[in-house]
Structures are given as structure tokens and as C-alpha cells.
Design brief:
heterodimer; A: about 160 residues; alpha+beta; Immunoglobulin-like; 2 domains; five-stranded mixed sheet; four-stranded mixed sheet; 9 strands; elongated; disordered C terminus; B: about 450 residues; mainly alpha; two-stranded antiparallel sheet; about 65% helix; globular
């Protein structure tokens, strides 16, 4: 196998994975989730919704002032203890999006995060397909290259430590 | 040896700059100023980490630059300008810029032979990792850690010649050395025979133009970046003009089989495991895990530390060892298992570096904007030196981070696969069996990469 062939195969694999169709049996609807914030966690820490769902977050804080920022959806809200807030949006993008505290709330504030997973989370499955198949393909390519090299000449540049 | 490009020939000005007596001290003094400010702000500034120069500039700005740019592309370049050993080195030399005559001013004690390896650095890193959540978020603790590192470096420099601290003790230097093997830049000699025939060995003993290698390395036998601190003393002292700085393929040092060692192998496992654990603790949604790492109770922290040390020293090396044993059995190799285990562990180096880059990308992009207010108000005392103190926290392109992480992990995994395959072909002459022998190592590496992927995207 020549390098150009491997590059072609890898490119084909990447294109196939990018255009891998998402399953369309997910029913979109409305999801209401109560999210409570305390130092330094969100409860629940992980929320799963379907792509197309209208998501309603009912946000509360039970200790200090926190903030709520959702990656990818540009949602931001300051949350004071005892004052609930409602955030409403349509989860139109598939993937994992972190929600974070956006108001300094203590030492671990930068690491106060939760996860919103919008199913079918195709970015993850595409990347997983890439990470699993590409190394095997690459190993096969290296093997083929080595065999092709051997057909060309008997000795390689390596000095083996042990012979089988 | 694969092709190298001699950068000093291509860019003569670079050679002049690197040979300059003032370059290293000037850059080090600059870094030392930042280091002292980080300690002062840690002790006397606001206890809120995200508003404190010491936390933001050390653990976001410096760390991001180190692991995303400096180490992957320039290897140990940071060690050249690191302020931690600077005071000790200047005390030893009795000078900052000018070369002083005579021996170094130390007690000339001999560093114990059993510690001439990376084990102290491995243990030191694990100790710091055990407290990492506290160190990363408490300015005061962070400042004491920086002070402690500097005090240890100065203390050792009073008793032992040269940079014993950097070479054998510094927990940061250990992993920089490991990952410097991946860098596309190396300091080497032009011709080894010139060094072998040269009687005075000025690069080791020093001369009027510079000191003997502070890293206790003989450049004539230098084959890897791991222990070369790029201080450029050998470039200054070599009377044969035999020192070069080369551009080379990434990861070239991984295949210097004769220098593979168990302490370095464990460093590779520790770094890979810590990247995984840090990703789970700091970037994951599990609040209880953060609290345990944050020492909410001693019992919780004890369990956390036991798990951390167990995963680092037993679980990951153990699973990898089983995979190596399977590979050895399949390929019917007669090479000792320990040697194979050590050799194959170097496949964790590219994957580990990629994992650290992927981990760091997430908080550098998201939390990098904390640097703007902090630079105007380093102590958090209400100053506004550059008019940026009121700048709001603004995550930069958080949607891009996932794509970058996938790209970096894929590249790291492909490098790891290449490393496994080349090590396999080194041991096996029957090329038909290399694929089967490599597979048991490639699959767990892909599994670890998938675990990272699940933490970031899953």
C-alpha cells in the first residue's frame, strides 16, 4: 500500500463518518429540567435531551450566587439564592455542551460544570468511529508498507534484538 | 538516521543569539519577575483564584503555553529560562552573566547513584497530583508550592554541583523531559567522532566562554532530548564548532531503544493516567469527585488519593503489562517481558502528550479570558493598571474545543500506533507476525483514546 492510498482511504473514512446519517427515530418534544446549583456542582450534572426538543431549565441556587452559561447556545443567566429562573431554548444542535458557573462562586468555580447531551450526539459517534478505525487502518498500512519494503530487499535498516 | 536540517547553518543569526552570554540570564530574570509576582500575589492577594495573578498566570497562561506550544514544538526550551533553579545556579557560579573562573561554589557532594533516574520526579509529581485541586485553586497554597520548589532547588545547589534539582528532582522537569522526545527540535553534535577524539571535553569541563554542561550530559553521546536543558553552554564552549540545533521529525527520540528505561516508562504511564484523572475530576460533571479531590473530608480525600496512586502505579501499568504479555505470546518472542514492557510504554508518550494538550485546550479556551482582568489587577485589590480590570469572563470559541480535542487525540493515537509498530519491527524479524504482535497494544491505546473522547464529547 502506498502512502497516497492510505491517505485516500483515511480521507474516505473521514468523509463517510462526517456524512454518517443520524438516526431519525428520536421524537422531539418539550423537556423541563430542574437544575439546582451548589458549590461546586450542578444537580443533575448530566442532562440528556433529543435534538429538536424545547428545553426548559428551572434554575435555582441553594447557597451563594452562581451563574449559568451554556456552551454552544449562548445562554447566560445570573442565579441568586432563593430566586428561581427559567431558561427556554430549542436544542437544535446535536452533541455534548457543557454548562458552567459564570459567576465566581469560590475556589473551584472554574471547574463547576455540568453536561447537556443532545442525542443522538453524532459528533461523539463520528469521532469514536474515527478513533477506532483509523489506528487499525494505519497499522495495516504500516504493515503493508513494511511487507512491500521487504519484497524490495532482504534486509531492513533495523538490527533486531531477537530472532523468532 | 532520518534527515535533519541544521538550523544554525540555515540561520546564522540564531547561532549568534543562542551563543550570547546574556540571552539566558535576561530571559530567566524576566521569568523570575513573573514568578516572584506569582508568589507575592498568592500570599498577599485575593484568595479568589480566578481573580489572582498567581493562579491565572501560572495554571492557565503558563501551563497552556508550556503544554500546547513549548513542549510539543521546542522540547525543553522552558528549562532554559525556568526561574526555579536560577537563584541556586547563580549562587553556585557566583555570577549571573559573566563566566567566573574556578570550581562551582558547592560542597561537591555526589548525588546518590540510586536516585540517578526519574523515580524521585515520578513520586514528586504524584504527591503534587494528590493535592492538585487545592494547588490549582488556592493562591496561597500555590505560592507556597512555587516557593518550596525554588527552596529545594537552592538547597540542593548548595550541596551538589550543577542542576541536580532539574535533572533528578523537579516534578515538572520530569514530564517535560519525557515529552521533549516528541519535539521536532534537538541539540546534537555534528560528528560524534570529533567529540570522542577531543581530549579536553570543554562541553563537560567548561572553558572561558561558558560552563560545563549543568545537566551533566556529554553532548557527544546525546541521542535524546530527555536530559538536555537547552541551556546552550555547550554551544558556547565547543572549540570545534561541533554543536548543532536540528529540525527533525516529531517523536524521533522514541526509537532510541538502547536508552529505554523503566523509570521513564512509569513516567509515561503516570502522565497518561493523570491526564485521564484530571479530565474526569476537573472537567467532568461529578461534583462529589471534585469535593473529594478538594479534601472535603480526610476520609474522602484518602480514598481519592489511594485511587489516584493505584490507577497510576498499578492499574494502567498492569493492564498494559497484560497486553504486552499477550503480544509476546502471540509473536512467540524470547525478549524478556520487562524489556518489552519498557519499550512499548514509550507508545504512551505521544498519546499522553496529546491527552494533556486536549485537556488543557478546554480550560485555556474557556478560562483564558481571566488573564485580562488579572493583568490589570494582579492582587485583586481593585487596581486597574491597563484598563482591563472590569473585563467579563468570556469563553473563547467553546464550540471549537471539541473539534480540536478530536484532532489532537487522533494525531496522538496515530503516533502511538506508529511507535508500537516500529518497536515491534525492532524485536521481530518475521514481518508477517508484526501485525498480530502490534494489535494487542494498539487496541488498548485506542481504548484509552476513546475514554478521553467519551469524557470530552460523550
Amino acid at each position: 500500500m502506498k502512502p497516497i492510498h492510505f491517505a485516500g482511504l483515511a480521507a474516505t473514512l473521514i468523509v463517510l463518518l462526517i456524512f454518517l446519517p443520524a438516526p431519525n427515530d428520536f421524537k422531539s418534544g418539550s423537556r423541563t429540567v430542574e437544575v439546582n446549583m451548589t458549590q461546586f456542582e450542578f444537580e443533575p450534572g448530566r442532562i440528556e435531551v433529543n435534538q429538536g426538543d424545547e428545553v426548559v431549565f428551572l434554575l435555582t441556587s441553594s447557597d451563594v450566587v452562581h451563574g449559568f452559561y451554556l456552551d454552544g447556545y449562548d445562554v447566560q443567566q445570573r442565579i441568586e439564592p432563593g430566586i428561581p429562573h427559567e431558561i427556554r431554548f430549542v436544542a437544535d444542535q446535536s452533541g455534548k455542551f457543557r454548562y458552567r458557573c459564570s459567576v465566581t462562586c469560590g475556589p473551584l468555580h472554574p471547574f463547576m460544570v455540568g453536561e447537556l447531551v443532545v442525542e443522538a450526539n453524532m459528533p461523539f459517534w463520528r469521532a469514536a468511529g474515527l478513533l477506532f478505525t483509523l489506528p487499525v487502518l494505519f497499522l495495516w498500512y504500516l504493515h503493508q508498507q513494511e511487507r512491500g519494503h521487504l519484497h524490495g530487499k532482504e534486509e531492513t535498516s533495523f538490527t533486531p534484538k531477537a530472532r523468532v | 538516521m532520518t534527515a535533519r536540517i541544521n538550523l544554525l547553518e540555515k540561520a546564522p543569526l540564531l547561532k549568534t543569539v543562542l551563543k550570547s552570554q546574556g540571552l539566558q540570564p535576561a530571559l530567566t530574570i524576566l521569568m523570575l519577575a513573573g514568578f516572584v509576582l506569582a508568589m507575592l500575589t498568592g500570599w498577599f492577594g485575593t484568595p479568589v483564584g480566578s481573580r489572582n495573578f498567581g493562579i491565572v498566570f501560572v495554571w492557565i497562561v503558563w501551563w497552556g503555553l508550556l503544554i500546547i506550544v513549548l513542549v510539543p514544538f521546542l522540547g525543553r526550551a522552558w528549562c532554559m529560562v525556568c526561574p526555579i533553579p536560577a537563584l541556586g545556579e547563580w549562587l553556585q557560579r557566583g555570577s549571573i552573566i559573566q563566566r567566573t573562573s574556578g570550581r562551582l561554589r558547592t560542597r561537591h557532594r555526589r548525588w546518590p547513584r540510586r536516585f540517578k533516574n526519574m523515580w524521585l520526579q515520578n513520586i514528586g509529581f504524584l504527591i503534587l497530583a494528590s493535592f492538585s485541586t487545592i494547588i490549582l485553586t488556592r493562591p496561597n497554597v500555590s505560592a507556597w508550592v512555587l516557593f518550596g520548589l525554588m527552596a529545594a532547588a537552592v538547597g540542593l545547589s548548595l550541596f551538589f554541583d550543577n542542576r541536580v534539582f532539574c535533572r533528578y528532582v523537579c516534578p515538572v522537569g520530569g514530564f517535560i523531559g519525557l515529552y521533549a522526545m516528541m519535539a521536532p527540535v534537538e541539540l546534537r553534535v555534528r560528528d560524534c567522532r570529533t567529540c570522542a577524539q577531543h581530549r579536553t571535553k570543554d562541553c563537560v569541563t567548561g572553558n572561558e566562554r561558558g560552563y560545563g554542561c549543568p545537566w551533566m550530559v556529554f553532548p557527544g553521546k546525546l541521542r535524546r532530548n530527555t536530559y538536555c536543558g537547552l541551556c546552550m553552554e555547550c554551544l558556547k564552549t565547543c572549540p570545534k564548532d561541533n554543536i548543532t540545533i536540528n529540525l527533525r521529525p516529531f517523536g524521533s527520540d522514541l526509537f532510541v531503544m538502547e536508552e529505554h528505561r523503566l523509570d521513564e516508562a512509569f513516567k509515561a504511564f503516570i502522565m497518561l493516567s493523570c491526564a485521564l484523572l484530571y479530565s474526569a475530576v476537573l472537567l467532568g460533571p461529578w461534583g462529589w469527585l471534585k469535593q473529594w479531590a478538594n479534601i472535603d473530608t480526610l476520609a474522602h480525600w484518602g480514598v481519592y488519593v489511594a485511587a489516584l496512586w493505584g490507577v497510576n502505579l498499578l492499574l494502567v501499568p498492569g493492564v498494559f503489562g497484560v497486553c504486552v504479555a499477550v503480544s509476546r505470546r502471540i509473536s512467540r518472542l524470547e525478549v524478556p517481558l520487562r524489556q518489552l514492557f519498557t519499550d512499548y510504554a514509550y507508545a504512551c508518550v505521544p498519546l499522553g502528550l496529546a491527552a494533556w494538550i486536549a485537556f488543557s485546550l478546554s480550560f485555556v479556551f474557556v478560562n483564558g479570558s481571566y488573564a485580562l482582568p488579572v493583568i490589570s489587577d494582579p492582587f485583586g485589590w481593585g487596581w486597574n493598571l491597563f484598563g482591563t480590570a472590569t473585563q467579563e469572563w468570556t469563553p473563547v470559541l467553546p464550540g471549537l474545543v471539541s473539534f480540536l480535542q478530536v484532532g489532537v487525540l487522533t494525531i496522538g493515537l496515530l503516533f502511538a500506533v506508529n511507535t508500537v509498530y516500529r518497536i515491534t519491527t525492532h524485536h521481530i524479524t518475521d514481518r508477517r507476525r508484526t501485525f498480530q504482535a502490534a494489535m494487542p497494544l494498539v487496541l488498548p491505546l485506542a481504548g484509552i483514546a476513546l475514554l478521553f473522547l467519551w469524557l470530552y464529547l460523550g
